[in-house]
Write a structure and sequence with these properties.
rRNA processing (chains A, B); 2 domains; 252 residues; globular; 6-stranded parallel β-sheet; methyltransferase (chains A, B); Ribosomal RNA small subunit methyltransferase E (chains A, B); homodimer; RsmE_MTase_dom (chains A, B); cytoplasm (chains A, B); 5-stranded mixed β-sheet; alpha/beta; Ribosomal Protein L25, Chain P
Chain lengths: 252, 252
């Protein structure tokens, strides 16, 4: 069933005001009176709803649904600004794979330089991609998007995480292959995890030192060299596999 | 260091004849006498080599390198033909993530219909993408590419696998979350694994039954609904995490 995010608190009946959502509901999907959809307000609870009046864009809430597709931990992906539209791709896929926060920052080896105007445009485009991907993948929340203009502002955020993993290519090359699995085995539900990735050129040694200073651990993500936009997908799939599949295996 | 695949058996000295490789070596990278690269012949062994004569496209092999980036198991990704250029994307990412074979077949719910001419063009394009991705990600082998014209030919191949996993969306929706992890915990090095994915619409119930008949197990890949081109990346990352990272954690 089609799912839509609705801004604000749950109300019944509800009138849809977001233009893109109205367009998708009534022009693309051509919903009519009695059609059912799932609405997710900002409380992250899925609710079954039925169209009351397509002209008024109004729906009646029928019941709460007990369906949660969120990872048991809060995962932030932070990527050095990559070239081209790779961040679009990364935002879509990271949303499908369960990230709670999708961040990007100007890394030492980022080739692109994005000023405030460019960052504003990027933010608008990425927000739409993330919202659409969150609806399609049946998420309970829309991942938070944050593009940092200055790296210093990103660095200030590091204190708020329980675990910081630095995807450092040199660690992978040196054969590091135990830190991530060891840490994930000890993680508690609800913990805040941050994975930091470089742009195409990787994380600079100075950045790696700064992230370590803030409590980060360098981790290898297997022996193959992944592109900047692929490594975050590996990390998210690993978190899901470790905490949603492998953990379930032991208890059922 | 730049890595190139070279057709045929290892010889010393070696003359590069593949046009794309010649172009990349001597026009793009502008290699000159004495420059070093890594060459990988069809035996999958990496060898350090030094340019002897750029005009002759000749290189001298210096030594074998003890570097293996292949997964400990042989993983085949088989996808129902997806729309547009999603197979390009999938081929590139599956190569980075360690797949040994990248297959696609006309699934019941594939929207696209590819005739032999189209399949020929697709094969040429995908082969280049896969080769490039294998060089960039430092693989020891170039994944095999196979596009099946008929589903029947694909079905005949199923007998050759040790484990067949069916990424069936209905299983994920029903909360199936233990089969993959249980199986991966019992896997032996060198086993042949097949993961089957549907196109955008998913695997049809008839296909799921045929794959089960051939020994396939339906598996859920976490509670979120992934796009057709994203689910294979989750599967490959899970295999790597389970067999390369989580397994290493216990033994070191």
């Amino acid at each position: 069933m089609q799912q839509y995010f609705v801004n604000g608190k749950a109300e019944n009946p509800v009138t849809i005001t977001d233009k893109d959502t109205v367009k998708h509901m009534f022009n693309v999907m051509r919903l009519t009176e009695g059609d059912e959809v799932i609405l997710v307000f900002e409380d992250g609870i899925k609710r079954l709803a039925r169209v009351l009046d397509p002209a008024q864009k109004s729906l009646e809430i029928l019941e709460k649904l007990d369906e949660n597709t969120e990872l048991p931990v809060d995962v932030t992906i932070a990527a050095g600004f990559p070239k081209g539209d790779k961040l679009d791709f990364l935002a879509q896929k990271a949303t499908e794979l369960g990230a709670s926060h999708i961040w990007a920052f100007p890394a030492d080896w980022s080739v692109v330089k994005w000023d405030l105007k460019k960052l504003g445009k990027k933010t608008d485009k990425l927000a739409k991609i993330i919202r659409g991907a969150a609806e399609q993948s049946k998420r309970n929340v829309i991942p938070e998007l944050k593009l940092f203009e200055q790296k210093a502002a990103f660095l200030k955020e590091l204190v708020s995480f329980d675990q910081i993993f630095i995807a450092y290519e040199e660690s992978a090359k040196a054969g590091e292959n135990t830190v991530l699995a060891r840490r994930l085995a000890e993680i508690n539900p609800g913990e805040k995890l941050l994975f930091i990735f470089g742009p195409e050129g990787g994380i600079s040694p100075e950045e790696a030192a700064a992230f370590e200073q803030a409590g980060g651990m360098k981790v290898g993500l297997g022996p193959r060299i992944m592109r900047a936009e692929t490594a975050p997908l590996y990390a998210l799939a690993s978190v899901s596999y470790a905490l949603e599949l492998n953990a379930a295996k032991g208890t059922s």
